[in-house]
Every structure is written in C-alpha cells, then in structure tokens.
Amino acid sequence: MANDETDALDALEKEAKDFDKDAEIDRILKSFRLDAYAVLDLQPGVPESQIKITYRKKSLLIHPDKTTNPSAPDAFDRLKKAQTTLLDDAARTHLDECISDARTLLMRSKNLTPDSEIVKDPTPEYLAEWRRKTVEVLVDAEARRRRQAQGRMREEGREKKREDEEIEARRKKRDQEKEWEETREGRIGSWRDWQKGTKRKESAVNGPTTGINGQPKGEKKKKKLKVLG
Known about the structure:
Layout: H1 2-30, H2 36-40, H3 48-62, H4 72-87, H5 89-109, H6 117-120, H7 124-182, H8 184-206
Helix pairs in contact: 1-4, 3-4, 5-7
C-alpha cells in the first residue's frame, strides 16, 4: 500500500513538473522575442548576476533533454539568445534606450511628466501600455536596422560589381597586349612580304630601269659640243 502511495505522489510531482515546464515554454514562445527582458521574465535594470541566475534556472527547467515538449528546442534557443543580448553591453544599451523611448512617448501621449503619480507608481494597466509601446519602438528600430543592412548590402554589391568590372577590364587589356606581342613577328613578316611584292609589281610595270648603254632609262643622251675655231 505504501509503495502505491509513493508511486502516486511521484506521478503527481512529475505531472506538476511537466506542467511547469510546458507553461514556461509556452510563456517564452509568447514573449516578444526582441525584448530580452520579457523572454527572461525580468525587469529592466536588473544586475548581471540576476540575469545569469534566472537564465540558469529556466534553462534547466525547459532543456530539451529534460522534457518531451516538441517546442522546447525553440524556447531554449530564444532563452539563450535573450541572455546573450542582456550580457552584451551594446545590445543591452540599445534595448534600454528603446524601453526609455517608449516610456517617453507614452508619457507624451498622456500629457504626463516623470513626477506624475502614475509614472512614479505605475498601475498594471499603465505597465501593460508601456509594454505595448515598447513593442512598437522595438519593431521600428528593427525595421530601420534591416533597411540599413539591406542598403549596405546593395552598396557592397554595387562596389563588388565595380571591382569585378575593373578586374575584367584589366584582364582583357592584358590579353590584348599579350596577343599583340605574340603576333608581332607575323605582322612584321607580312609587312616585309608586302613590300617585296610591291617592288616586284613596280618593276614589271615600268620595265628595266637602265637602257642599252647602261644609262638610266628615260634620260636623254647629252650631245657633245664641237669646239669652235
């Protein structure tokens, strides 16, 4: 009987743990992935030590090796990425700035100041609005980042195309110079052959260049003058 009760308690405990694991996996997957604080269920401004402790507890709870939940790998990856973001100074600073901007925009929309009672002691409803505004700001920031990345990629693509065209132009020039040099002897030989052929044609058309007595052809023989007296 005692063994049956122990087995029942163990089964209940396992069921409770499985429920906690599934609930945490579901919470992580429903969290806004660009907000690392939301993924880890932390408030902005927490110390780094708290980030590491929270991550360790949750990662052990939902580790894919410790649950049969098919969504565990995805949730675990998001949890890991959230911790990496919050432990990176630049990434965390960017996130904190977005959250601060969302707070400022929310106060401005409601004509509030930092001294307003609801700002100093926010209600759950106000915090929920702040969270929604944070999502909007993060989405806008991510959209800008992607546009800038695409712009850089296009510019890099244009630069790469220019470099490829310059390389191709230099290659063609080298090939032309090489071909010109390799055919140099052939061109010189052709020119010499052409000159020889031209001279032979001229000789055949004009006939001999000297007369019978060896005097240049076409030149009149000078008459000798008689000596007077």
